[in-house]
Amino acid sequence: MGNCMVVEEKVVKVMGPDGKILEYTSPTTVQQVLSDSPGQLVCDYPSLLQQQQKFLPEVKLVGGRLYYLVPLLPSTPTSAPQLVGRTKNDKVAVKSGGVVRIKLVITMQKLEELLKKD
Q: Which domain of life is it from (predicted)?
């Protein structure tokens, strides 16, 4: 009679957005998981709680732990600056929240004159 010990590799489990569990052999990287699921990011539970801090592609996932596939948030079109027009010196004026910012270069004398008029 003797003792028997089975050494079993722990698998990396990744839960998709649909709730299905995907299993990968250990060791595996984030890049390997993302190659099967484009347009998503991989994170663990603590990272999920911290505003979805994603793992870099070269990070190795630890066997026996559960990771999550989260769809990337679509970029908001309002976050990109909108082109309004061009200034005299061909510099781009950008509309930001209803305000147009321009760069004006004047002499100190002209500035004093403008301030005196008010």
A: Eukaryota
CATH 3.40.50.2300 fits 12-71, yes or no: no
> Burial, 113: exposed, middle or buried (Cβ in 10 Å; 0-12, 13-18, 19+)?
exposed
Q: Are 31 and 55 in contact (CB under 8 A)?
A: no
Q: Cα(107)–Cα(118) distance, rounded to whole angstroms?
A: 18
Give the domain ranges of the chain: 12-71, 77-117
Helix (H) or strand (E) holding 113: helix 108-117
Write out pLDDT tens, residues 55-82: 777 888 888 888 888 887 765 555 555 5
More confidently predicted of 2 and 98: 2
